[in-house]
Amino acid sequence: MILLSTSSLSWYWIHRILLLSKKAWFDWIDLCLNYFDYDLWDWDYIKSLCELTWIKVLSITAPSKWLNEEIIDDIVSLSKKLGAQIINFSPPYFKDINASWFAKHLIKVKSETKISISIKNVEPEFLLLVIPKYKNSSLLDIKKITWDTSLDLSIVDNWAWLDIIHSHKLLWTSLKNIYLSDKDWALPWYAWWWISNFPLESFLMKLKTTAYNWFISLKVNPDDLWVWNEELLLQNLSNIIEYYKKYYLNYK
User: Fold this and answer.
1) Mean per-residue pLDDT over the chain, rounded
2) Distance between CA atoms of 178 and 153, rounded to whole angstroms?
3) CB within 8 A of 99, min separation 6: which ones?
């Protein structure tokens, strides 16, 4: 099933995002949390909006930095109350927490809930060219944390050997969510449908043939959706749904 990441419409407040999602025929969303929009953390408010629009929060993406045990527990509590099936975490930020503590706490959370605790890939970033900003962030490392992973296609390195097909092979059995976009969060048909060294539509067809049945979340740059023009925005979202249906949902 295809979800709309709220980060794709981040120009708007959450109530507007859900109303636009409904107009565009999205039934499910990935709630992308940040520390500046307090409404996103208000489960009662979010639940009332979901009931109003008949949209379900199936996935939650945690902030990529400044996490601690209390914040993680708050996110888990929010997920339970909203009925989310998966929480997507980034690997530990270098200023945040001990990597072993992070892993142990997430494993504990996973064992106590029915929620998938997934670790997403992050773009390689370094301080002073040598210090990685995220600890244990290779694909093999993130897979070993909880054995559930999410793959953000926009940051797969198209100049390295590790293209999306290799990434898919490495994470295949652990994949629970795929953030759909072209390079740098562009719409899929931008850059002639190419991401890494493989056409995106072929990747979607490969997912279907390998019986992938978890989530695909549209996560793109709001500018590429033309969020300042509702008519064009809805048309772009409609095109994405048709693209998803053609190359994944209805592919045989």
Assistant:
1) 85
2) 7
3) 91, 92, 135, 136
* Cα dist from 78 to 5, 116, 117, 224, 236, whole Å: 17, 14, 14, 30, 30
The CATH number assigned to the domain holding 109 equals: 3.20.20.150
Tens of pLDDT, residue by residue over 95-151, are 555 567 888 999 999 999 989 999 998 866 555 454 555 555 678 888 989 999 999
Residue 192 has pLDDT above 50, yes or no: no
User: How far, in Å, are 67, 123, 159, 176 from residue 214 at the CA level?
Assistant: 26, 23, 28, 5
Q: What is the pTM of this model?
A: 0.89
Per the CB < 8 A criterion, the answer to whether 115 and 85 are in contact is: yes
| Mean pLDDT along residues 239-251 | 90
Instruction: Return the pLDDT at 146.
Output: 93
User: How many domains would you assign to the chain?
Assistant: 1
CA dist 46 and 245 (Å) reads: 28
Range of the domain at 211: 2-249
